[in-house]
TrEMBL record:
It comes from Profundibacter amoris. Pathway: Amino-acid biosynthesis; L-leucine biosynthesis; L-leucine from 3-methyl-2-oxobutanoate: step 1/4. GO terms for molecular function: 2-isopropylmalate synthase activity; acetyl-CoA C-acetyltransferase activity; manganese ion binding. The lineage of its organism: Bacteria, Pseudomonadati, Pseudomonadota, Alphaproteobacteria, Rhodobacterales. One of its GO terms (biological process) is L-leucine biosynthetic process. The keyword Translocase does not apply. Mn(2+) binds at D19, H206, H208, N242. This is 2-isopropylmalate synthase. Residues 10-271 form the Pyruvate carboxyltransferase domain.
Length: 390
């Protein structure tokens, strides 16, 4: 087992309750948010982005309550680059033992056009709002929204302004899921090389999954020097979602040989949180979703089941227990083989001689051709029919 104690620590920033909840239809109730926040805190999430306090009275109340109840995690609220937003955010997060204000403004040409600010005017707004936030709280995160479509020189300029104004974390959002791993890494490297003061702050990566690259982009940014990953449980988030917490955390754990970073996450709590978020958001997890999908630890084909029965590492790169599942699921269906059938029947208390198994296997295959999945009750009925025919 690798000694991870000397490895660089990657901060896990969970935004299920803010960016995740922004998914159309994923609204959560006050109590549901409190429960999720408490599970995230227990799981070892370093920073919980609990909401957007100016957005509604409900959001303000949830962020305040989460802040009051927080045990270990830093509690963060989001605010636009407006003094009123920042003040409201502070009113909500200030109850936390470790509060953070996160303020942002869109810096790409597409986003600069919305408030109709030129580059210099926007730079002034950034200086004023980050300074204002820093006068309230000593833990300030600043995000140039749509950073990955912002001109390099301007990105370096505004990041420098935010650092000088007191930002302690600079987050680089790939707001529209446009970047790719090599570019995601290049941006972080460029900022570390070109921006004065960059070594004194933490760079974060915040990726969306529009092209299916959110996890890869986040990990590439970490390789280039980012030390905070922003993510959500089940990858919940706007459009195609955000980087999935369970994917980046398990990737760094399973492939620690090539991604030598550690997190403070208790991975055995992953499954429970995934189910909870799926239930309260009303967004079911796709069956083949990495780590938490119903099929992530399930095997039906005969070759795979046979391999799994001999040694789990033939077809599994992580143990189900590591993510909070009790065991691998050998699904019985038409692709299953004799070894899996024998093992499943033995679990049910049927110890069969070879000639009996041969007979049952023929009946099992006939049944499996008619039925997609064979459950334990089907096998018990099959055994009953076989014994009564004998
Ligand atoms: O995707 C994004 O740009 C965001 C910011 C508000 C950080 O969620
Ligand atoms: Zn986002």
């Amino acid at each position: 087992m690798t000694d991870t104690s000397t490895q660089d620590r990657v901060i896990i920033f969970d935004t299920t309750l803010r960016d995740g909840e922004q998914s159309p239809g994923a609204t959560m109730t006050h109590d549901e948010k409190l429960e999720i926040a408490s599970l995230l805190d227990e799981m070892g999430v370093d920073v919980i982005e609990a909401g957007f306090p100016i957005a509604s009275e409900g959001d303000f109340a949830a962020v305040s309550e989460i802040a009051k109840n927080s045990k270990n995690s830093v509690i963060c609220g989001l605010s636009r680059a407006k003094v009123g937003d920042i003040d409201r955010c502070w009113e909500a997060v200030k109850h936390a033992a470790r509060p953070r204000i996160h303020t942002f403004i869109g810096t790409s040409p597409q986003h600069r056009a919305i408030p109709n600010l030129d580059m210099d005017e926007m730079a002034d707004v950034i200086h004023q709002t980050v300074t204002h936030a820093r006068n309230l709280c000593d833990n300030i995160q600043w995000s140039p929204m749509d950073a990955t479509r912002t001109e390099d020189d301007y990105l370096c300029r505004v990041v420098e302004i935010a650092i000088k104004a007191g930002a302690t974390t600079i987050n680089i959002p790939d707001t529209v899921g446009y970047t790719a791993p090599a570019e995601s890494a290049k941006i972080i490297r460029m900022l570390l090389e070109r921006v004065p003061g960059a070594d004194d702050i933490i760079f974060a990566t915040h990726c969306h999954n529009d092209l299916g690259m959110a996890t890869a982009n986040a990990l590439a940014a970490v390789d280039a020097g980012a030390r905070q990953i922003e993510c959500t449980i089940n990858g919940l988030g706007e459009r195609a979602g955000n980087t999935a917490l369970e994917e980046v955390v398990m990737a760094m754990r399973v492939r620690n040989d090539i991604m030598p970073y550690q997190t403070g996450i208790d991975t055995t709590k992953i499954m429970n949180l995934s189910r909870m978020v799926a239930t309260v958001s009303g967004f079911p997890v796709q069956y083949n979703k990495a780590i938490v999908g119903k099929n992530a630890f399930a095997h039906e084909s005969g070759i795979h089941q046979d391999g799994m029965l001999k040694s789990a590492d033939t077809f599994e790169i992580m143990r189900p227990e590591d993510v909070g599942l009790s065991e691998t699921n050998l699904v019985m269906g038409k692709h299953s083989g004799r070894a899996a059938l024998r093992a499943k029947l033995a679990d049910l208390g049927y110890d069969l001689a070879d000639n009996q198994l041969k007979d049952v296997f023929v009946r099992f295959k006939a049944l499996a051709d008619r039925k997609k999945e064979i459950f334990e009750d089907d096998l018990i009925a099959l055994m009953r029919d076989t014994t009564s025919d004998a």
